[in-house]
Design brief:
By secondary structure, the protein is an all-alpha fold. Helices cover 71% and strands 0% of the residues. The protein is built from five helices and no strands.
Length: 128
């Protein structure tokens, strides 16, 4: 949806249909990130297209933020910055949990690497 409306969107116009569709799709993607962070699902199993969608949503929300800043719409800027702050915090938690191993899910959800190591140990033990 974002790529479909992006070439036609006039983000500085509040009544532009393409801009409204693009912003709705962006918010839906960001909401999915927020919902996903509340689960114990191992993100290693997600398809790579998810990260591309997250990237597109990030680019789009920054584009809207720039338009609000340029228009000197302080309420709009504050609203978009709050959305971005929430998503940055969520992505930071996911990064800490999945990459650094220090997040809230690190102790409860085994990663794919742990599962592979356990499988390798079982296979090696059976060969002896």
């Amino acid at each position: 949806m974002i790529q479909l409306h992006d070439p036609h969107a006039k983000v500085d116009s509040p009544n532009d249909h393409s801009a409204m569709q693009m912003l709705a799709a962006t918010r839906a993607i960001l909401d999915l990130i927020y919902k996903l962070s509340g689960t114990t699902y191992d993100l290693l199993y997600l398809d790579h297209s998810c990260s591309f969608g997250w990237f597109l949503a990030g680019v789009a929300i920054i584009r809207f933020l720039k338009a609000k800043i340029h228009a000197r719409d302080e309420d709009g800027v504050m609203g978009l910055e709050q959305e971005l702050d929430r998503q940055i915090n969520v992505l930071d938690e996911i990064y800490n949990a999945e990459i650094k191993g220090r997040g809230r899910r690190a102790a409860t959800a085994p990663s794919a690497t742990d599962h592979r190591a356990e499988t390798d140990n079982l296979m090696f033990w059976n060969l002896q």
